[in-house]
Design brief:
heterodimer, A: 680 residues, alpha+beta, Dna Ligase, domain 1, nine-stranded mixed sheet, six-stranded mixed sheet, B: 584 residues, 3 domains, seven-stranded antiparallel sheet, 22 strands, 5-oxoprolinase (ATP-hydrolyzing) activity (chain B), Hydantoinase B/oxoprolinase family protein (chain B), Oxoprolinase-like (chain B), Hydantoinase_B (chain B), Hydantoinase/oxoprolinase family protein (chain A)
């Protein structure tokens, strides 16, 4: 069978096609069509069929990732949404926690407050109330729910989020309310907080539920239209969507829970990296994805991604299992500038894709990281993006000279060198946050880099962090799209427990896990999967009594009653993170979680390149800090498995390039990765 | 030269990253919701001469005063007496240069070899340090001793091991020993992380690079602030305001005058508080560290917030505050709400004075309070008692009012302002953790002053008491003086608090009163002040007025009064009117 991965990014839609039988891989890029993303995705589908000379009937599988959901939240373009809350609490969404939002400078009197996700006129209340233990204080007034339904029916509101206090403990009132709303408003998207995020803390739960609701109608339409259009083009295979947790899911499940699409794109890259780790037997890796505006870092430990339960998107809280990704504003397009005191700074302003860096020749005049790389020879003017458009070296030189070199009294090369060094340091800080702050030593990890600009900085960065091995996978510029074809299906379920280990009856934890498995297995069956082939990962969110934040611990397969194992794993993690434990404090299990994984992703071997020996394809001048050097340039596509390239030299490929120093050697391993071992 | 630029920027940005990381370490391990959920804590890095060189985006009230308290803490022990792994603890405003007694600072020297290269500090609000009322947050205190334990600078850790004797004294003087031990460990963890990171930074780039970066970073910020002050028109700008009095039975109820003359001359700026009234009985006085902090905050806010914040920003600022005045109080004046209530009032005073100099950078007056509401009594839930082992429980929450309108946009509703930023507690956590229910938390219409831009609204939280018997204290400002508008903007609503008993009686509670006793079934509502508008209300676009009416931020009656907005809901009326008519 043939598989396609389509990753719809902000600027480009990346597409790859893999032939299971031969292991051959094809790839292409088309522009994203923001007004109607289905158009661009279909264009990509047609183009990849063309390039690979396939026909749509041969495609057995299509994995799809999209930044659509993220853009909708950031740009405030979700569906008109109503929020229904417990009486007295309609404003929780606007009040948040009463402190200024995370991106406001506290000394700033003119900061802009994020727009509340629901206009106040559509924040509605009904009479009902539960106590903290789930007991009913005031019964739900269904008559009021019906009145609200009538009001909504007469409006342009397309989605309704229902959030009642303590619904994560007892969902009965929310269930009754959404049942009534769904009956009376069959054409609106209705969801309740216990369905989306059954966890305590009303603002966080409301925010997650409302975001799910405002995405619902638009994402649902997109999912149906894309499916329909693919079918019209003769596609008869399975369509799956990439979720924030790094796994794929069936369209029907994603349409109900579009919240899972928020980190869809970056998650694809992480999935691909996990497969890379498995094949090359690398249990621990730091992942660096450097694109146009940001550098994204994530972590794989023991072949699993680090996952977090809560993230901030444009200052809005989202609680949904998400691959833990940290971003810094140090992408290729990040602008370097001199502040009023004469300090050299990078970002957070980015030239983006339009006008883009000065060297794009589209009117950008500010020097960016990419401009500096071009000036130094780390990027080649003629082969950028596979040579699709030629970079303007003179423009890059001019921008660096006028904006940086002259004011600083440096040569253009020295100024560019300084920018590169500072960009590397910012990226190193992000890697440090990801590792050291979580109690891990980066030196025990390999570094896998991708994104167009990732490999350009990889070796310097690894050197600075004391990382011993750098791996550059095939197609680093299309790695996320590749991830859509190799990722497994993955479904997350969670339940709130909120009990101390000592308070839990024997078997209670095991019973909670079993309940979740029953629920999950039933959904898997409905999605047409064989539950026998599904692997279950069990996790628990724990904290000491009184602490705010949970630590999520993974549980190995093992004893029926996992309480002891959970306690030990929590204390180990607490010690690693914070350098102390509190043996006299009770440990609370806040939530139990399971993840069902169906290994449906492609696990074949990429077909090796037919080349016999790498040949020098040209020469390029690179300006190292130690001095200029004219280096041999090799085409990556011409290096066979086992081939070695000795530095100093340059390895060029369509989406990126790698500059090796004299002491460095790159080897192509049997999985077509470029592997560079660095001296300790 | 290249290396210089690069090393400088790397070390400089690392310092800020380390300060942030210290705060995260503290928040994630703290025991009391005030520190972890509300984030009432902060962290900073100082050079070897105790000058503040980097801080996170932390609660400003804790930062400015740390400039003074870190120096005092270190000097009290003697720099040469400090050893690796020592951590100094202190809270006292008179012995340790603190801002108010509940904020406890940990100060730690960072050694490379035998040399101190820096200091790191963490500061956290402890929910109870003893004193007159549970929660240590009532303003009807006779003197500083009534506000709780006075901790002079002493070592709480030596060689990274807690000094048990000191720890015992601290924890036995809190009604909340249980959470406090976690909070102490959390603050320690913050200093430990800061120490580790600074040492590895010094090892990588060299002690000399660390030292010169710190020095240059201070000079750099000073230079930027001077440039920004230079752009403010030279001149003298004056203002005065009156603080709300303490309203407790038998108290004199003094309303001290706050007075300032701001002189802008070239790239320097002087704040002279001469004429401010003498210190009063009750915890509304400011020690000098708090007055400095309010002043420094304002300078930063009206110049350029993007300037990296450190002590260099304060070098062009001269502060004159008469000793023994309410803005430079002397022993044994009590101070608890000087830090959270008087301090923002000082900022409103300064913005009033400076409105003539920088009209586009000032804002309508704001709610100016923490609105700290504290309930304390015996646990009533058997299950919870078994789980936590806490027989007496104290619920401490802050409350959110309005932030004044700006020159180009509306104010912000339900938010902590200026030097404070601790958040309020999630309703579900309150009910899960304490014998309390929250019956309402919502925005209150018409509490934001009208204007071309509207002031932010106040929020109101109403609790139903589940304790059999509990103490209740609240600390606020603007119970008497409503927040005024700027340039024709109207004032916002003042602070309001009341206890409604099951028998139908309703007792108002003053912003600065004493302790009230409440019982099961009593309903207590706390509503900080709203905020002032900016500009003439008649210049507000009709569409904005209508949207406010539709969203219920402003009632139709208030819109008619303040904006001459009229609509009878007739078919020829406006969209808002029609929609309102349809709903009626």
């Amino acid at each position: 069978m043939k598989r396609i991965g389509i990753d719809v990014g902000g600027t480009f839609t990346d597409v790859v096609l893999i032939d299971d039988a031969t292991g051959r891989v094809w790839s292409t890029k088309v522009p994203t069509t923001p007004r109607d993303r289905v158009v661009g995705a279909l264009e990509g589908f047609r183009k990849i069929l063309d390039v690979s000379q396939s026909h749509s009937g041969e495609i057995g599988f299509l994995g799809h990732g999209t930044t659509m959901a993220t853009n909708m939240v950031v740009e405030g373009k979700g569906a008109p949404t109503a929020l229904v809350t417990t009486r007295g609490f309609r404003d929780i969404l606007e009040l948040r926690r009463a402190s200024r939002h995370d991106r406001a400078d506290l000394y700033d009197l003119s900061f802009a407050n994020p727009r509340p996700l629901v206009e106040r006129r559509w924040r509605l209340e009904v009479t009902e109330r539960l106590r903290f233990d789930g007991a009913v204080e005031t019964p739900l007034d269904l008559g009021q729910v019906r009145d609200l339904a009538a009001q909504i029916a007469a409006s342009d509101v397309e989605a309704v989020a229902v959030v009642f206090l303590h619904a994560h403990v007892n969902p009965a009132h929310e269930r009754a309310a959404v049942e009534e709303l769904r009956r009376l408003l069959p054409d609106r998207f209705v969801c309740a907080s216990h369905e989306v995020n059954p966890e305590p803390m009303e603002y966080e739960r409301a925010s997650s539920t409302v975001i799910n609701a405002m995405l619902g109608p638009v994402c649902g339409r997109y999912i149906r239209r894309l499916g329909g259009a693919l079918e019209e083009h003769g596609f008869r295979g399975t369509l799956m969507f990439m979720q924030s947790n790094g796994g794929l899911a069936a369209p029907a499940l994603v349409a109900d829970r579009p919240l899972v699409l928020l980190e869809s794109g970056p998650a694809g890259g992480v999935s691909a990296a996990i497969r890379t780790c498995e094949r090359s037997e690398i249990p621990n890796a730091i992942l660096g994805d450097m694109g146009g505006t940001t550098f994204d870092v994530s972590l794989i430990r023991d072949y699993r991604p680090e996952v977090r339960g809560k993230s901030l998107l444009h200052s809005y809280v989202v609680r949904s299992p998400t691959i833990d990704i940290d971003s810094v504003g140090a992408g290729g397009g990040s602008i370097a500038w001199i502040d009023a005191g004469g300090g050299l700074r990078i970002g957070p302003e980015s030239a983006g894709a339009d006008p883009g860096p000065a060297c794009y020749g589209r009117g950008g005049t500010e020097p960016t990281v990419t401009d500096c790389n071009l000036v130094l020879g780390y990027v080649d003017a003629g082969s950028f993006l596979g040579g699709e458009f030629r970079l303007d070296e003179a423009a890059a030189h001019r921008a660096v000279e006028e904006r940086l070199a002259k004011p600083l009294g440096l040569s253009v090369q020295d100024a560019a060198q300084a920018v590169r060094a500072i960009a590397n340091a910012l990226m190193a800080q992000a890697i440090r946050i990801m590792t050291v702050e979580r109690g891990y030593d980066p030196r025990e990890f390999s570094y896998i880099c991708y994104g167009g600009a990732g490999p350009v900085h990889a070796l310097d960065l690894a050197e600075a962090m004391g990382i011993g091995r750098v791996i550059i996978p095939p197609l680093p510029g299309l790695f996320s799209a590749f991830g859509m074809t190799v990722a497994d299906q993955q479904y997350d379920y969670q339940a709130s427990l909120e009990r101390t280990l000592a308070d839990l009856r024997d078997g209670a934890v095991a019973a909670s896990f079993a309940d979740l498995e029953t629920l999950g297995t039933a959904e898997m069956r409905r999605a047409g999967l064989d539950p026998g082939a599904v692997r279950t990962v069990r996790r628990a969110d724990c904290r000491y009594v009184g602490q705010p934040d949970v630590i999520t611990v993974d549980l190995a397969e093992g004893p029926d009653d996992p309480r002891d194992a959970i306690g030990r794993a929590f204390e180990e993690a607490h010690l690693r993170l914070w350098n102390f434990t509190s043996p006299d404090k009770a440990i609370v299990i806040a939530n139990v979680r399971i993840q069902l994984v169906a290994p449906t992703g492609w696990r074949g071997q990429a077909a090796p390149v037919a080349a016999s020996a790498p040949a020098v394809a040209g020469r390029r001048r690179v300006r190292f800090a130690e001095g200029d050097a004219d280096l041999d340039v090799f085409q990556r596509a011409a290096i066979p498995v086992g081939g070695r390239i000795q530095g100093p030299s340059v390895i060029e490929e369509p989406s990126t390039c790698i500059v090796l120093k004299a002491s460095q050697t790159a080897v192509v391993d049997r999985n077509m990765n470029l592997v560079i071992e660095l001296a300790a | 030269m290249t290396t210089d630029i690069v090393t400088y920027e790397i070390v400089r940005s690392s310092l800020y990253a380390i300060a942030r990381e210290m705060k995260i370490a503290m928040m994630r391990t703290a025991g009391s919701p005030l520190m972890h959920a509300s984030g009432d804590s902060s962290a900073a890095i100082f050079d070897a001469d105790m000058q503040l060189v980097a801080q996170g985006n932390d609660i400003p009230t804790m930062m400015g005063s740390a400039v003074i308290s870190t120096k005092v803490s270190v000097e009290a022990i003697g720099k040469s007496n400090l050893e690796p792994g020592d951590v100094i603890v202190s809270n006292d405003v008179y012995l340790g240069g603190g801002n108010h007694q509940p904020d406890v600072q940990f100060t730690r020297p960072v050694f490379v070899g035998s040399e101190i290269v820096a200091f790191v500090m963490t500061r956290g609000h402890w929910t109870d340090i003893g004193g007159q009322s549970p929660g240590s947050y009532t303003v009807s205190t006779w003197d500083v001793f009534a506000e709780g334990l006075r901790i002079p600078p002493v070592r709480l850790y030596r060689g990274d091991k807690p000094v048990r004797d000191v720890l015992e004294i601290l924890s036995r003087n809190s009604r909340n020993a249980d959470e406090l031990l976690l909070d102490i460990q959390a603050q320690y963890a913050g200093t430990f992380v800061g120490d580790r990171r600074l040492v590895s930074l010094a090892e990588k780039y060299g002690v000399q690079a660390l030292r010169s970066t710190m020095a240059r970073s201070l000079d750099h910020s000073e230079k930027l602030i001077r440039q920004a002050i230079l752009a403010i028109p030279d001149g003298e700008y004056e203002a005065e305001e009156t603080l709300d009095p303490i309203e407790a039975p038998g108290w004199k109820g003094e309303s001290p005058l706050l007075k300032v003359k701001v002189t802008v001359a070239g790239d320097g700026i002087t704040f002279d508080y001469t004429g401010t009234g003498p210190q009063v009985r009750g915890g509304i006085n400011c020690p000098l560290s708090v007055t400095c902090n309010s002043t420094w905050f304002t300078v930063k806010a009206i110049t350029d917030v993007s300037i990296p914040i450190n002590q260099g920003c304060y070098r062009p600022v001269t502060i004159v505050a008469p000793e023994g005045s309410v803005l430079n109080c002397q022993y044994p004046a009590s101070v608890v709400s000087g830090n959270t209530e008087t301090s923002p009032r000082v900022i409103d005073l300064l913005l009033k004075a400076l409105s003539a100099a920088v009209p586009d950078r000032v804002v309508g007056q704001s709610n100016c309070c923490s609105g700290a509401g504290i309930f304390s009594g015996r646990e009533t839930d058997a299950g919870r008692l078994r789980r936590t082992g806490r027989e007496f429980v104290t619920m401490h929450d802050v409350h959110a009012g309005g932030m004044g309108a700006r020159a180009d946009k509306d104010g912000i509703s339900g938010v902590r302002v200026y030097v404070g930023n601790a958040g309020s507690q999630p309703v579900e956590l309150i009910e899960q953790g304490y014998p309390m229910m929250v019956e309402e938390w919502s925005l209150v219409p018409d509490t934001g002053g009208a204007g071309r831009f509207r002031g932010g609204l106040a929020s109101r939280r109403t609790y139903r008491v589940g304790y059999d018997e509990a103490t209740f204290t609240v600390s606020a400002e603007r119970g008497r003086s409503a927040p005024q508008g700027q340039f024709g903007g109207l004032p916002g609503a003042p602070f309001a608090c009341q206890v409604a008993r099951p028998d139908g009686s309703v007792t108002p509670v003053a912003a600065k009163g004493g302790q009230t006793v409440v019982h099961r079934g009593d309903r207590v509502s706390i509503q900080p002040a709203g905020s002032g508008g900016y500009g003439d209300p008649l210049e507000r676009p009709r569409a904005a007025v209508e949207a406010d009416v539709l969203d219920g931020y402003v009632t139709a009656a208030a819109a008619a009064r303040d904006h001459r907005w009229s609509d009878d809901g007739s078919p020829g009326g406006t969209a808002a009117g029609r929609e309102l008519g349809a709903r009626r």
